[in-house]
Design goal:
about 150 residues; alpha+beta; four-stranded antiparallel β-sheet; about 20% strand
Length: about 150
């Protein structure tokens, strides 16, 4: 066991297929020594439907790196996999930022920006989104920072 075992939060990715072309991917934080106030798994972020389809190729690469293959899921089937903290932070933040968006270009800009973030920056933004009174404002501010203005190409 590594010296840091038990000192980092534990995350789990859950994927399930609700129907043909309807995949749901969610990140949960699990109770651990690092999170003593957590008694049951806590939903951190998720994505499904059209917005998931738009970034599915990026997600599949990250999931493959985590050892989870969701391409072979059958309707009604679900899979779970543990995620390292860095990957979980980026996925959950991406899910929360992209969920309400509609513009493909803006979604791509946000996804690129989140992929380029360091672990500390992603943790900061996700923490702000999880623990603030008005998380939509925090997520909107992040979207504004990540989306390239049209006049500056």
């Amino acid at each position: 066991m590594s010296p840091r075992a038990g000192t980092t939060p534990v995350f789990e990715l859950r994927a399930r297929k609700r129907g043909p072309g309807d995949l749901v991917v969610e990140v949960f934080e699990l109770p651990s020594v690092a999170t003593p106030g957590l008694r049951e798994p806590r939903y951190v972020g998720g994505l499904h439907g059209r917005n998931l389809a738009l970034v599915e190729h990026r997600l599949l690469k990250q999931l493959k790196g985590a050892g989870l293959d969701v391409t072979s899921l059958k309707t009604g089937e679900a899979r779970r996999a543990r995620l390292d903290e860095d990957r979980a932070l980026r996925l959950a933040l991406g899910f929360r930022v992209l969920a309400p968006m509609r513009s493909r270009e803006n979604m791509r800009s946000c996804a690129d920006g989140i992929d380029a973030m360091g672990k500390e920056e992603a943790a900061y933004w996700l923490g702000m989104a999880l623990h603030r009174k008005h998380p939509r404002r925090v997520l909107n501010a992040l979207r504004v920072l990540l989306i390239e203005p049209k006049g500056r190409g």
